[in-house]
Amino acid sequence: MSEGHKMFISVMVIFAIYATFFILFDDYDRKHNFTLIESSDWRLVLFSLLVMTGLGVLLLRYTRRMDHRINRDQADKENQVRRQLTQNIAHELKTPVASILGYAETMLEHPDIDKETRVQFLERTRSQAQRLTSLLQDISTLNRMDYATDMIQMEPTDVSRIVADIIQETSLRAAQRHMSIHNYLPVNIIVNGSKSLIYSIFSNLIDNALKYAGEETAIEIKAQEKGDKWLFTVSDNGTGIAREHLSRIFERFYRIDKGRSRALGGTGLGLAIVKNAVLLHGGDIKAVPTPGGGLTFEFTLKR
Ligand code: ADP
Questions:
Q1: Chain-centre distance for alpha carbon 79
Q2: Distance from the CA of 212 to the center of ligand 1, in angstroms?
Q3: Ligand 1 centroid from CA 246, angstroms
Q4: Ligand 1 binding residues, C-beta < 6 A
Q5: 121 and 170 together in one domain
Q6: Residues 18-31: pLDDT tens digits?
Q7: Helix or strand or coil: residue 287?
């Protein structure tokens, strides 16, 4: 609550109590044909004003103390979240860095290592370096959304086209997993937004469905107009997830099966990026079970 609000409330309280006193005294006097306080009116006014000013000061001090406590609690909570996040990032970076170091040291200490093993070690080093790159890219995208929103360029963006491009880019992977992608978006869905973030929203959701839904499943992408927003759904009919995870999967580094996510190249930040990007576009997102099995993401974007 701002100081102005507090002052306004205090003044209103003072007036309310003052008016009550005045009415009560007046009523009493009239009923009993008697003056409650043997003094002229100005004394009564002065007395009540003094009492009310005192009350106002007390109220101000109380609200200020409450505000202080709320701010302190909020800062504590933010610090805790930040600490946890830093720990998570450090933990996620540790594994790939340690394995890159391990492979490099082994190759340096054993220069006569056979060619096949050397190539294997180099391939693993490259894949860990790629993992580091994805992680750093995701962290930087989230940072941009957290602290540099003014640098995000909003412009009329053709969502239908972005989705069509992503489907084309992923078609080989979908075919390898015997999965089909059905795009029911009407052409020319234009929203005022960031091209790269809208790309991130759809590519993360489609990528996740390709990674987790399972072979021989299908992905559907739909949209409908809802007032000043577009309501999108990206759904799959795969394995889905248990209800208790539904709201938590948007948290940074929250994964249901860490090993599986890492093996599939996941950073645990994809859905956090999706959620933040949707919120930045004036929308909202939730995950619900697909009727009959699988996972559906429903989200809105402002038109
Ligand atoms: P990750 O990098 O692990 O994929 P995400 O934030 O993108 O991180 O997703 C968080 C978790 O949500 C995943 O690890 C996975 O367990 C679950 N998940 C996301 N999408 C799906 C899906 N379509 N089907 C089943 N599980 C999913």
A1: 17
A2: 7
A3: 10
A4: 204, 208-209, 212-213, 236, 238-241, 249, 255-257, 261, 266-272, 295
A5: no
A6: 677 667 766 666 66
A7: strand
